[in-house]
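Study this:
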Amino acid sequence: MARILRLVLLLVLAALPASGARAHAALVASDPADGASLARPPDAVMLRFDEAVTLLDLRVTGPAGKVALPAAPKAADGTIQAQLPAGLGDGTYLASFRVISADGHPVAGTLAFGVGVAPEAAAPPETGAVADWVRAAEVLRFLLYLGFTLGAGGALFRALVAAPPGWVRHVMAVATGCGIVAALLGIGAQGGGMLAAFSFTALLQPATWGAAMAAGLSARGFAVAIGLGAVAISAGLPGRAGCWTGALGAVTAAIGLSLSGHAAAGGWLAHALLAGHALVAAYWLGAFLPLLGLLRAGGVAAAPAMRRFAGIALPAVAVLLLTGVAQAALRLPGPMALVRTPYGQLVLAKAACALSLLLLAAWNHRRLTPALATGKPGAARLLARSIGAEAMVGALALGITAVLTMTPPRAAPTDQQAHDHRPAPGAVVVAQAAGLGLALEAEPARAGRNRLLLHVAREDGTPLAAPEVWIELSQAEAGVAALRRRMVAEAPGRYQWDGPELALPGRWAIRAEILVDDFELVTAILHLDVAPGR
């Protein structure tokens, strides 16, 4: 055990200076710059990201609508370049992009520049993905992790501890099948997010699957499905053949899990840490069902299996914790991110689940397993209840992990969203979010330059003096995504932005981010109808 711990610790220390914190791809430079004012039209639009990306779409819109590009945009080594046609007129132009980052997540953003108009202050655009597809991917990943844990974990239990009862093997086979389906559907969900499809019926279209495969995002799903397929086959094989086939399938599926997601952008070490983490977690959490089956079938006779399981689980848990800490250290930008970002908060929630599992495991190992071995009345029943509690905590940890894998490590702190009441078209929209009241005024609410004024008040009506207030403006129908601007405080509870970003008529989604204090960020989404310009 000491040798294993030293080896894992050395890998962790080697990783920290080499990899640093990683997240989804971010736009680091553009030409023209976001918010720039140009005396003459540019010849091209150039976007440079902090890692290699796969281009999905790049469109430019201006005062006359969509700009027809003379040639397809080119992408190489994290740089995208698109030639612009000659003779662009004066006005505000929006360049909207959609790319796939190295970790497999779709990323979108928009930059604004003017030709013959006054410069506007700007901030780097944030990236994002279609929320519905993200939620679908989270559900599919939870089902995948559950199938992997019950199937691969059960196979490892069979190879290292004891053969589970027949009904347990049946449940494992069904769970493994669900995991295979979830792994394959996950490919389609990635394609749907890439194409920003408006409904899940896009899963029936070949283009959705082709988009994910063309971007190289299908390797994970296929590798996991192949590994779990071997696990399913092993259930029908006797003796050593079944044990070896199941164990090999478990390892293959664990490697497959590391082929995309946050680990994909972190190099071979991040792959190894995630695969090892997944295998150890599967052995630990996947043992609960076989242990319950053995307790129900044999009672006192299950004590030797409990001891064998604990003998492997104790050093395995140490590896699990160290690999988990290493992954968090590789992805988080600093210790305060644990409490200031959703990713860090999910890491803490997962750590709380792990601590609860450790406490229950220690109680089982110290008290209940010895009582079972000595034949103490009621010991089997108490041990079964304790293992059942561990299984519920383990399922919660898998759910947290499913959300964690879809959460950017550099995301904003607390994201409490609320939607507006969608009033009739006009210059004022209101919303409620996390105990705050918001009212957004737009003048003149027509395509072109507008003054946006946001009023923020607490439940008792007192103005909120927020340290920072940001807005993101997008119009999905026109392909305009994530124009991010910081509002200027005029007075407590009153923030304004003046600029030409609302250049197109139609319904705009305005995402307001109000930093209440150092630890709380409240978010509300308002919809503003912009009339055609005069």
In short: Residues 126 and 388 are 43 Å apart (CA to CA).
